[in-house]
Design a protein that fits this description.
binds farnesyl diphosphate; Undecaprenyl pyrophosphate synthetase; alpha/beta
């Protein structure tokens, strides 16, 4: 499953707090969501933490988000590892400050053999960029004679995406009442169930996770069949 964690700013504003306080509460909600998903037996949870379009935000907010990322990777790494969670990154996290990129690389490398659950964090990620990178990779293979154009099929494209080693996306949740995908997992969402909920991200808790999974279980999936 994947989540577009939206509404941190509105949550903070409603309390007369700075946006950074909303992001801090949002990061705590992300931690709780990982725990609740793990308890429910979710195989993979993908979180949209920073989109390739988020660089348009004011520098102060980018700094706040980077600081949170640094803090949580350091603080949460051991418990993720202990709980058998593999950390994976979607997007190009090397665009963040070098120390943060290194912390992330280290956490990814050290958890790579964990098998209980995968937590994928989308950082500096955009689905169109991911698809463009995949196309470029396949084109290079064709140019070098390793691949025939006629051999490019859905399986090859999937194998060239950042998500190549993740299970199919079954459920995509967006919080805060907005109903759009905002350049997140466009290819992978082709047959995902979409769930738009009003809850602002910092208020998303274990009960919200259980309610979402319950709603998912109720839906009938036909994949174009009858
Ligand atoms: C959307 O809320 C949220 C984000 C842009 C960032 C999501 C980040 C977190 C949940 C914190 C964890 C982050 C890291 C880097 C570990 P918004 O600011 O767009 O809210 P608004 O639409 O109400 O303004």
């Amino acid at each position: 499953m994947a989540i577009i964690m939206d509404g941190n700013g509105r949550w903070a504003k409603a309390r007369g707090l700075p946006r950074a306080a909303g992001h801090r509460a949002g990061a705590e909600a992300a931690r709780a969501a990982v725990r609740a998903a793990g308890e429910a037996g979710v195989e993979c949870l993908t979180l949209y933490a920073f989109s390739s379009e988020n660089w348009r935000r004011p520098a102060s907010e980018i700094n706040d988000l980077t600081a949170l990322l640094r803090f949580y990777v350091k603080k949460e790494f051991e418990s993720l590892h202990r709980e058998g969670i593999r950390l994976k990154i979607l997007g190009d996290h090397t665009a963040f400050e070098a120390d943060v990129a290194r912390l992330v690389d280290d956490a990814v490398a050290r958890t790579s053999a964990n098998e209980r659950m995968t937590v994928a964090i989308a950082l500096n990620y955009g689905a169109r960029g991911e698809l463009a990178n995949a196309m470029r990779r396949l084109a290079a293979d064709v140019a070098q004679g390793r691949l025939q154009p006629g051999d490019i099929d859905e399986t090859r494209i999937e194998a060239a995406l950042d998500t190549h080693d993740l299970p199919p996306l079954d459920l995509l949740i967006r919080t805060s009442g907005e109903q759009r995908l905002s350049n997140f997992l466009l290819w992978q969402a082709a047959y995902a169930e979409l769930l738009f909920i009003e809850t602002l991200w910092p208020d998303f808790d274990g009960d919200s996770m259980r309610a979402a999974l319950h709603e998912f279980a109720r839906r009938e999936r036909r994949y174009g069949g009858l």
